Amino acid sequence: MSSTNVDDLQSVVRGGPARGGAGDRVFRGLATGAGVVILATLAGVALFLIVRAWPAITASAEDLPGGENLLAYIWPLTFGTIIAATIAIVIAVPLSVAVALFISHIAPRRIAQPMSYLIDLLAAIPSVIYGLWGIAVLGPASVGLLRWLEDNLGWLPFFEGPASATGRTMLVVAAVLAVMILPIITAVTRSVFEQTPRRLQEGALALGATRWEMIRLTVLPFGKSAIISASMLGLGRALGETMAVAIVLSVSGAITFDLIGSGNPSTIAANIALDFPESSGLAVNALIASGLVLFAVTLVVNMAARTVINRQMRI
């Protein structure tokens, strides 16, 4: 064996890559450059939003849309964005995890494979189609359920009503968003569930565990970080969704926890899409300021998710 090969082997045994190779230097430079480009792009977007939003931030209340201060303008939009995305995640995550487990560990291969293709196909459907489906099919079909919730659970602030006669409610929008983010969460969790070490699953079964006990003790703990990561990806999609929300939701602008009424706060993304073409002057700056808030919310959510994932990996 040559001295060069011996040095490379010793470097690998010590746990570090062989240094000095032209390919390694090129790869390291490309990887570093890609990271710098991403950070520079993120910083550029943040700087653009801050600069363009600054006139609205410093303007007096009477010059802004509606004659109210910027916080009063943006807060209902932020509230609507967060509540719609949160309900969508609450609906989508358990369903997505159940579908991923069914495909990866329960269904026969002749059923699992076509089903995984169909689930992935949902991600390719444009959001405007989901919006049309929500307003033409899901909304009218949910009217009976909305009235039942008002009659039986009206003592809760979420279902106090009066129930919408058209189904254009926050609950229906959240259900549409849940269907939209379901393939994202399902695809990520399914791929990780399928990578659960075989020896752990077989060991659990050999010790007398049932299939569900094996899944609960090995598959779910192994995929916990993937579930969190997939949920945050889906949450990011739900926070920024525009057309489906704009088509389905009946907007009044009021802050309310009522999920079945016809008066709802809009979301930041939908409000920008609907108002931007006809806005000018400070109205545009106010819309960009709301976009800055959405940017900040998304950034905070992803940073929190990364913190949780890192903590789970250390455990």
Written description of the protein model:
The chain is mainly α and about 325 residues long. It has two domains: about 25-60; about 70-315, MetI-like (MetI-like fold, Orthogonal Bundle), CATH 1.10.3720.10. The chain is about 75% helix and about 0% strand. The protein is built from 13 helices and no strands. The protein has helices at about 5-15, 20-60, 70-105, 110-120, 125-140, 145-155, 170-195, 200-205, 210-220, 225-240, 245-250, 270-275, 280-315. Helix 4 crosses helix 7 (about 170-195) and helix 5 crosses helix 7 (about 170-195). The longest helix has about 35 residues, at about 20-60. It is globular and about 70 Å long. The two termini are about 40 Å apart. The relative contact order is 0.14. The model has no long low-confidence stretch (mean pLDDT about 85). This is Phosphate transport system permease protein. Its main location: membrane. Pfam families: BPD_transp_1.
